[in-house]
Amino acid sequence: MTFLYPIIFAIFIGFVFRVSARVCQKSLIDLIIIAYIVFCGSVILTGFTLSEIHKMNDRRFWAIGVFIPAFIFYIQFTKFFGKDRNENFTVFQMIGSQIQAVWNWFGNLSLFLKCIFAGLFISLGIIEITNFILICYTPPNEWDSMTGHLNRLLYYLQHNTMSHFGGTNWNIDSYPRSACTIQIYTYLMSGKVENWFKAIHHTAYWIIGFGVFGIVRSISKNLTASFFCALVVLLLPDVLKQTITTESDIVLASYLACLVYFLFSFNEKKKRRYLYLAGFSFGIALGHKITFVFSLPPVFLILLYTVFRDDEKSNFLRLTFAHFKHLFVAFILGFVLFALPAGYIENIQEYHHPIGPPTALKHQSVDRAGSKANLIKQGSRNVLRYSIDLINLDGLRNWEAGEKLNKTMKKPIIWFERNVLKTRLEAEKDFTIVPFTYHKRFEFYNMSPYWGIFGFGLILPLILMVLFRIIRAKAVYYYLGMAFTLHFIALCYTAAYDPWKGRYMISSAIFAVPFLALLFTEQYSIEKAKHIFLKTYVGFVVIVGIASALSSTFLNYRCLPFSAYGRKSAFDMTRMEILTEARPDITKAYENFNNIVPQDATVAVATINDDYEYPLWGDKLTRKLIVINPFEQGLRPIPKEADYLFFAKSVIKPKIGDIRLGTDTTMTKNVIVKGEDYYLRKLR
């Protein structure tokens, strides 16, 4: 019967596209983005329901359950939201016409632009093939997933519910759970293949590209600009890094891209269906991760432009009562359906705060800064720190020669900060998780880069020139520029400096990358033959950007497709070596554990907040784990049903007969956080 579930999954995907086809415009981008929101919304609502009735691990309920909200969406779109649809077409007709349009578009480009786009498309194709193979043949190994994101999925499946149970890592219980429903659904329907945990993240990567394409097409009406912006966002180093991981930021950015796309689509078409789709996207995004609040002020600005603004009268009074009614209902529906059930209410009940326990707040929020005066002072330093982090040859610096060039390029910036500004960015360590340095550890810039040369070479200069009116642009670009600025400021002032923050800039890119459309739609368009210098400069940036994107993929330290840095490729490593790649000092200990403990054993786990637990579940994720040292709750008794006890020496004192598993406590090279000294005790 197992073979039926992938078939049912495929049928569900087809039904989702059927729903989307009944409400979308005659646009392939519209079809795909609406289908994505219908899919995610249906799975999330089903997951919340199954959690309440303790059926999270029952594939029969999943197989049938997801069709119910999807069918409700179908009724809503056909009878209410989409009844003003007046276009008749088939999906196959639309796909055929789109392919022909792209072929004609490319054929009409100048030789210069043909070379630019050929390079972008070919490099994207190479990267996608490589990443797809990596996804299919290597397990996930991202740090937070080993301690929290993936680990909690298996606990939820084991408990048959997503309710609080007391996990070792604080985010197991306190993080919003909507993403968990999608990962659990794809995992179960695939036949329990762990690589499918990454399916939503890789899908989100493409949705970001489609979303940016649709946004730019809406504001510029220029197909060349739309393709260029979409290709660039798909080749940004920070976006590429999360394409093959199970980190959560790329999924959040995809929801944001959908939300902004729907708002611009409403501005263009004035169809109320887009207000409801925007409301659902808002709720799904807020239910995905609390850091979506960084995007609320920028989204409000976009809302002002797309819904409130009257292009003819240049005021904000045009909003009709009907539009306001639908806008209000849409966002309330999105909040109630997708955000409230995601765990915020349970967090308030458990921790008296919607985010989580006080320790987590002090570590990762404004609470770490202390007084408001200190928050303003240190947040202002973070503005400079993150601005400087954006000016790096990310991707290219994965090569030794690239890093040397990068250091040379940054010398004037370092001199200016130290001798003119004197802001003590490196010396001041307050309101930082890891102190700022101009020359970060290799692991930091390799695993969590920013935008690279596309960012500081094209995107940021265009934003600054528009905001300072050096370039005269349409009003929409001023709104987008302010939206990006607000998002960037939120990153700087709402949490301590963190060298891993490049991942948050994926969402910032949704507001920033559309500025590249100015290269094709304004007076300085590179489509004009006379702009020789500008065309040369853009060509140079594109070449370096492509090299950076390829380097980000093929020199990805945590998942190398080929041997590099004196290390084996991911395909030549054992599963345990890949899972513990970021913590090489514990690899031997976990290998010994896996060799000793049967794959179907029940293991009591006494570890600390930052320990890897995901590898303990076994090669096929079949072991049962019982947490006995939950976060800040103290040590619990060893349960009678446990066959083994896995523990850290700092949690339980070893006794005679316990097996020391072999953590290398002397290793310092390539170790960011030292592993605990792990032991194993056979209980029966």
TrEMBL record:
Annotated protein name in UniProt: Glycosyltransferase family 39 protein
Record-listed E.C. numbers: 2.4.-.-
Tree of life domain: Bacteria
Protein keywords: Glycosyltransferase, Membrane, Transferase, Transmembrane, Transmembrane helix
Organism: Arcicella gelida
UniProt keyword Transmembrane, yes or no: yes
Domain Glycosyltransferase RgtA/B/C/D-like: 201-332
Membrane-spanning ranges: 31-49, 61-77, 111-135, 199-216, 223-244, 250-267, 274-307, 327-345, 450-471, 477-497, 504-525, 537-557
GO molecular function, one term: glycosyltransferase activity
